[in-house]
């Protein structure tokens, strides 16, 4: 919060407290015509009298004001003033996290150095891995790990960066960043972009215009071969997808492929090493790896 906003909040808060105090004090003073009726009558015999608030009620209001002043002095609430206690929500969060970590440490301890393949055959390990995945990965890859447009399906055998247990663990721990540059300017025309897109579709076995695909292949061999390979099977060292299996992260329609060629793609998986730690990363990597294995290879979670 800037100094200007901090001063504004402090002044506004103090004025509100002073205003409430003044209002209580002014209404507690003797009033003209006290004890007389106001002339308002309900249901024939219920009359409104002109009387101040009862003393005990006023004292309760004054007590709330005193409590508010004490609270604002002890806890942060007056702009940038940190409060006498030094309390912060970040410290509270860290304390609760540390308490939870200490409580759960024995549960995770036995998986610390266990090979991922072995965790994948351990029902308890898979249950924990699935829980971690649901908390940290499902928002992108879905609760069933089948992904969505822009987020890879983790249950098949198609991997951008490699599907071995060690590859998956490295992805979880350190993240991945895949970049396809926009190629519209290099190709020079919409027709050229369409030709390359049609050739990309042909690599996955789709029926396309042969002339368009042939023209697209010549352009592909000039610009795209460096990442996706001469045969279109991609390069896991670069995160370049395999174009021959008809599995498309961003969609395989002509328009979707044209959009990728024209504008490029920038996919980023954040690193989770500092978020979930190495043991939880190992557990979630085991669960993810198990989803892509033939049935019976891994234990049922």
From TrEMBL:
It comes from Pseudofulvimonas gallinarii. One of its GO terms (cellular component) is plasma membrane. C-type cytochrome. Part of the cbb3-type cytochrome c oxidase complex. It comes from the Bacteria. Keywords: Cell inner membrane, Cell membrane, Electron transport, Heme, Hydrogen ion transport, Ion transport, Iron, Membrane, Metal-binding, Oxidoreductase, Repeat, Respiratory chain, Transmembrane, Transmembrane helix, Transport. The keyword Cell membrane applies. Component of the cbb3-type cytochrome c oxidase. SUPFAM superfamilies: Cytochrome c. Heme c 1 binds at residues 137, 140-141, 269. It is found in: Cell inner membrane. Heme c 2 binds at residues 180, 224, 227-228. Its main location: membrane. GO terms for biological process: oxidative phosphorylation; proton transmembrane transport. It holds the Pfam family FixP_N. This is Cbb3-type cytochrome c oxidase subunit.
